[in-house]
Design goal:
Elements (H helix, E strand, L loop, with lengths): L6 H9 L2 H12 L6 E3 L18 E5 L2 E8 L4 H17 L12 E8 L7 E3 L2 E2 L4 E2 L4 E7 H9 L3 H11 L5 H7 L4 H14 L9 H31 L2 H17 L4 H8 L3 H12 L1
Parallel strand pairs: 3-4, 4-8
Antiparallel strand pairs: 1-2, 2-3, 5-8, 6-7
Helix pairs in contact: 1-7, 2-5, 4-5, 6-7, 8-9, 9-11
């Protein structure tokens, strides 16, 4: 079942009815919003890579620009990418001229699934003088699992206050039960069901999106494992240390169920050497 942690499901569910998006943003930003305008999510073409970059959802809320990024998982790669997007959005709305000046305040909201940490708020800060340097950019990390856990704990006061965030992390059967007490959640549940029943065609098929995310994690695991192996080898300062590092890398990749050909390319080992290492893991 595809939930709001897939950007295609989220985008359809909240943009089909702007009132859903409005209530969600009001809960996160803790302020009333009068108007919402959906903007073109395409950023200026990246000249260094000659490709367009597309945001998940970019809206104008009254006089504030808000970029919403949907993150099915959370790791350093995603955190860095989100930060890069935030600065790119700032660059998009910079006024022309010799003085660097932004037209409006920029807010980025990262909706992070599979992360239990409480919410985080980031802005540009001078640690020496202990002052906030600018109000132009603020980044919110909204960690959905934290809210869902409160739902499971049956914290009624918390649930009532943050139900529009909680609903994003619930499975369909949980949503249907949750929506019995709230017409707003019922609307959102209906949208999620429509995606799962193929009534509509999402921006990206959720299954394709899931494979893309898994491929990104696999590539990152290979890079991380290779770096770890090299560090172990350098620290040991001898050939045995390098071999041990490669062995540990191979074990990590096998545990992540990376395919054999990829492991061979990443480590330089033969198929038989990898099979021998696999036996040591089982033992």
């Amino acid at each position: 079942m595809y939930t709001a942690k897939y950007e295609s499901v989220f985008m359809y569910s909240v943009t089909k009815d702007y009132y859903i998006l409005k209530k969600l943003l009001e809960t996160i930003l803790n302020k009333n919003i009068d108007t919402i305008t959906l903007l073109n999510p395409n950023l200026i073409k990246d000249k260094t890579k000659n490709r367009n970059q597309k945001l998940d959802i970019l809206v104008k809320c009254d006089e504030i620009y808000v970029n919403i990024e949907i993150n099915s998982g959370y790791n350093k790669y995603i955190a860095n990418r989100n930060l890069l997007y935030a600065f790119k959005v700032c660059n998009e709305f910079q006024e022309k001229g010799s003085i660097y000046k932004l037209k409006k305040q920029i807010i980025q909201i990262n909706l992070n699934f599979n992360r239990n940490k409480y919410n985080e708020e980031y802005f540009i800060f001078d640690p020496t003088n202990k002052i906030r340097l600018t109000n132009i950019l603020t980044i919110y990390n909204i960690n959905i699992n934290f809210y869902v856990n409160k739902y499971y704990e049956k914290d009624t006061e918390f649930i009532s206050k943050y139900k529009y965030i909680i609903m994003l992390g619930l499975e369909l059967d949980e949503l249907e039960n949750f929506s019995k007490e709230d017409d707003f959640v019922k609307k959102f549940t209906k949208r999620v069901k429509e995606v799962n029943e193929d009534v509509i065609i999402p921006w990206i098929e959720p299954e394709v999106e899931r494979r893309m995310y898994e491929e990104m994690l696999r590539e990152e695991a290979i890079k991380k494992g290779t770096r770890q192996g090299k560090r172990i080898g350098i620290k040991e300062g001898r050939k045995e240390g390098i071999k041990e590092g490669i062995k540990e890398t191979t074990k990590n990749l096998l545990k992540l169920k990376v395919d054999l050909n990829t492991i061979i390319q990443a480590t330089g080992l033969t198929q038989q050497e990898i099979e021998n290492i696999k036996i040591t893991i089982k033992n």
